[in-house]
Amino acid sequence: MILNTTHRNSEHKQIIADLVGRPFSLVQKLKMNGVGSKRMIIDEVSPNMQSMMNLVSDINYGNIELRPKGILIRINKGLQTFTWIIPYYHLVIYKINGSSIHAQGKFLHFRANKTFKENKKFFDKLMNQKVEYDLHHAMPYGL
């Protein structure tokens, strides 16, 4: 689900909390050494997300925030901010010349550059969070 989160909206806040959980507490954020990535350059998006990209040759930026049950990808388009809400059970990440995030019939590809390399620890943390979530919420076999 993608929301226009340029302006604060209590309804959007509730939708995000229902899908991926409330933000981590300050103590949890400190223990995890942060829950947000640095700004990364978006190279390519799926056709159904093209409307959120800058039409001119401006560089598109995005960043990722960890939540207990998923992630938020914030995409900046001029003065607008869009938030792609991805629960962990929808999330698929491919590491091909950068990182490609797939979910809900959409994808987004981050460019492999200096900023992306600085986010390596963040992506390791993201994968650990997803594995932890999958272990605790796995469906028993035979159902």
Commentary on this structure:
This protein is α+β, with helices and mostly antiparallel strands and 143 residues long. It has a single domain, classed as PH-domain like (Roll), CATH 2.30.29. Helix content is 27%, strand content 34%. It is built from four helices and eight strands, in the order βααβββββββαα. It has helices at residues 10-20, 26-31, 114-118, 120-136, and strands spanning 2-4, 40-45, 60-67, 70-77, 80-87, 92-94, 98-103, 106-111. An eight-stranded antiparallel β-sheet has the order 1-5-4-3-2-8-7-6. The longest helix is centred in the last third of the chain and has 17 residues, at 120-136. The mean pLDDT is 89.
What is the number of helices?
4
Q: Can you tell me the overall shape?
A: globular
Count of discrete domains: 1
Briefly note the CATH topology name.
PH-domain like
Secondary structure category:
alpha+beta
Major beta sheet, specifics?
8 strands, antiparallel
Strand order of the largest sheet: 1-5-4-3-2-8-7-6
Could you name the CATH class?
Answer: Mainly Beta
**Helical percent range?**
25-40%
Radius of gyration: 15 Å
Low-confidence stretches: none
Share of β-strand residues = 25-35%
Please state the average pLDDT score: 89
Q: How many strand elements?
A: 8
What's the CATH architecture name?
Roll
N-to-C CA distance:
28 Å
One letter per element, helices H and strands E, the order comes to EHHEEEEEEEHH
